[in-house]
Amino acid sequence: MNNEWLRGRAELGLAALVVLIGGLVLVNTATLETPATVNVVGPRVFPTVVGAVLLGIGVWLGIDVLRGGHGEPDAGEDVDLSRPSDWRAVASVGAAFFTHVALLRITGWLIAGAVLFWGVAVALGARRWLRAAGVAIVLSTVVYLVFSHLLGVSLPAGVFEGVL
Amino acid sequence: MDSLELLLQGFATAISPMNLLYALVGVTLGTAVGVLPGIGPAMAVALLLPVTFTLDPVSAFIMFAGIYYGGMYGGSTTSILLNTPGESASMMTALEGNKMARKGRGAQALATAALGSFVAGLIATAALAFAAPRIVDIALSFGPAEFFALMMLAFATVSAVLGGSLVRGLASLALGLTIGLIGIDSQTGQPRLTFGVAQLLNGVDVVIVAVGLFAVGEALWVASRLRQSGHGVIPVGRPWLNRSDLARSWKPWLRGTVLGFPLGSLPAGGSEIPTFLSYSLEKRLARRRKEFGHGAIEGVAGPEAANNASATGVLVPLLTLGLPTSATAAIILAAFQQYGLQPGPLLFDKDPVLVWGLIASMFIGNAMLLVLNLPLAPVWARVLKIPRPYLYAGIVLFAALGVYAVNAQLVDLVVLFVLGALGAVMRRFGVPLAPAVIGVILGPLAERQLRRALAISQGDYTVLVDSPISIGLLGVAALMLLVPVVGRFLRRRIDRGEQTGSQERAEAPAGEEP
Question: To 10 degrees, what angle do helices B91-100 and B57-82 make?
């Protein structure tokens, strides 16, 4: 098996994932206890069916891929299917996202939101970093004020506790 | 009370100044978000859900009706001016609409889309108001076994119809069902698939699933394959129709409505089929058939009307049976559940003010859209020029905001990102997203009905096929799954020995054939 063969069949990974999740569901379901009070259908019946279906479909998908079937990647206005995957951009979006999660409770939503916006914008190729930062701060301030004051959705105030 | 009287009461609810304002805000926000490239109606509704969190249910749903129609209309604007359908339902619109725009007839394309949506929306809403009470009467006789069969049918149709490949549709559905399993079993208190994480005991909110798969998934998918070249947004003036455009449009509007509403009401997966059928019907009937493919106005008018009518039709099973048949409907069902409401036959009885207020505000929302969108089209066209990095940064920002607003839990954000990654993978391999969203919301309901049915029968599984209705529904469901498989098998036998180059092409639209 060479690389070329595998590349055309990356979808096998998806089939494996489906099978894996199916196994996980079945194992987890097997550990459930059926309380004595339940006389007919306990908590295990439905998940067992779902797990079995996952296994079956994972195998079916795998066979389909091996026989040359493949799913059409989702086309879209901003997607260029002829390009190879840009893992750096994906990882940068992830980094921005988890920075947001980490900051949320510490600095408050306003700053964490601005960081998220800026991070994703830069990851997706915004070249003028300072301008992106300006947009990020303005947007996240407006959104914060609208949601927390106008719509009454509570967001962590963080360092602006009592100020904004 | 008969439905006309109830509808008038609904108008009385919806026409209060505050509720009119909510409808206006909903329509505007829905259109503005729906216009954004890459955002279809489902994502628009999911992203805007948090805006309605703090409203009372009636106002929230009035706003929601506006968002629903606004998102739909925004999507067609995008596909006409950018040739990039946000979702499969606008594909047919883009076909002729974008050609029209390129020939400088964008204003007419937008006008026929707006007017067609309006006409279709009005007629379809009237049909909904008429049909719903009758379906409710029938549904009241349904027992758990019938509801279970109905849900199986919905599962089968959304998996078979949405997307091109049955096995990928089923994979999506099964993944959704699995996510729906997470949390405490409501009847026995057993934690399922929570792996010791306390915050998962309440299950994964459908809003998180929808926003994760659609919004974050889209952002990650675009990040992995970002198009570097510029975008050709076609400038457009104020939409208008002259006499001959109007003469060519009105019949397609009506035909599209007639196709769209009933097909949308069936549990057959939304607006893909009706828009496709409407397009081919108009192509066949058109006097200037040669114009098709080069910007025929009939090819915009028909599918747009069919799209809007079927979007209204989708609300029939949702409101009367509690059965979502499109991703957007699944999110609306989730919105109902946020308020502790369960759509279905009983809702009409228990909460007539809400239901009829919602139906009345659908009329109002349609009218508002028309008034708003004819003059504002040039503004929406400018929205399309948002630089892509800012656009997707904004989408991720609002996704994170909305999900945090649901429960104020950081774990939810982690789940959101994991689901986003799953959404990106599914996009990469052509796995449709809608079956997963429907599986998440309908799975637990199906399980509840199954257990109820079996509790009544004391464990006798034949109760599931005890009534003609259940047998019929399950039979159709089995057919939906078998037809593509058998069809492909037959085609393979025919193709055997011949050149098989065309086979892959033939398989792609297989879902549209049954």
Answer: 50
Looking at the structure of chain A, the number of domains it has is: 2
Predicted confidence (pLDDT) per residue in A5-50, tens digit: 666 678 899 999 999 999 999 999 988 877 666 666 778 889 999 9
The residue written with tokens 């689901």 in the block is: B419
What is the rounded CA–CA span in Å between residue B257 and residue B261?
Answer: 6
Distance separating the N- and C-terminal Cα atoms of chain B? 40
Asked if A29 lies within 8 A of B192 by C-beta distance, the reply is yes
Query: Which domain range does residue B29 map to?
Result: 2-507
Q: Is residue A12 situated within a structural domain?
A: yes
Query: How many folded domains does chain B comprise?
Result: 1
Residue A60 lies in a domain: yes
Q: How does residue B158 score in pLDDT terms, banded at 50, 70 and 90?
A: confident
CB-CB neighbors (< 8 A) of B428 in chain A: 73-74
Q: Report yes or no: B210 and B334 within 8 Å, Cβ to Cβ.
A: yes
A155 & A91 share domain? yes
Give the ipTM of the model, two decimals please.
0.92
Instruction: Point out the residue among B185, B392, B397 whose CB comes nearest to the CB of A113.
Output: B397
Q: Which two tokens stand for residue B295?
A: 């910007």
Check A43 against B192: CB less than 8 A apart: yes
Q: Is the dihedral of CA B335, B338, B344, B350 positive or negative?
A: negative
